[in-house]
Amino acid sequence: MSQTVDRALSILPLLAEGPADLGQVADRLGVHKSTALRLLRTLHEHGLVYRQSDQRYRLGARLFALAQEAMENLDVREIAHPHLVRLNESCGHTVHLAVYEENEVLYIDKVESRYPVRMYSRIGKPVAITVAAVAKLLLADLPEHERRAVAEKLDYPTYTSRSTPNAGAFLRELDKVREQGWATDLGGHEESINCVAAPIRGADGRVVAAMSVSAPNVVVTADELLTLLPLVRRTADAISGEYSGRTPVKGTV
């Protein structure tokens, strides 16, 4: 039974390369045509493959529907939370998870610092979109025309002397973030708070969320916080792997 299942599943990546006839499927599996036909018929009955008029087989619509349904039901917060907790236990600082929805970047999870000085951020609260490291990552992943449209509509409050001053500066920062694959907020929202962030990507490589580690200067300096960047990126990569199904569930730190 397990060999039959294995053979049937091996047909799917073959057809992902393009339509194939019965002989090609049999050759790839190393089985007789009658065996390949039996497997294809079973997959066809479940809508996972489709037989074309030219007698070649391709992936079926049901397979795409199942994939779409699975993606829509994935909860990035649920997947990410254990990783965020382990990161927090390792470094002790505040950890955030954020997403971009309806022209706002919102925190959807937070693990508090172990230190007495706490951040006022709250789950469900929009971030300061022009300066926050998580916002930079989420907006940097947008197509260029969307990035430019968003940047030109934003206001640019002067939270501190390090705040982003205008749309041009913001777009240059987004280009930099897009190229390097990580982001920072070093006193841009509050003089005393620094932040490093990394992206969480889906199976298609697009950024679906961003996570960050933040800490006040009284706990660690900006330079000290930046030394955590490799750990933050490893954690984000582990979440990405689990969210996209590329890697098995395992600890990150």
Automatic annotation (TrEMBL):
InterPro entries in the cross-refs: GAF-like_dom_sf (IPR029016), HTH_MetabolicPath_Reg (IPR050707), Tscrpt_reg_IclR_C (IPR014757), Tscrpt_reg_IclR_N (IPR005471), WH-like_DNA-bd_sf (IPR036388), WH_DNA-bd_sf (IPR036390)
Domain HTH iclR-type: 2-61
IclR-ED domain sequence ranges: 62-245
Keywords: DNA-binding, Transcription, Transcription regulation
Full protein name: IclR family transcriptional regulator
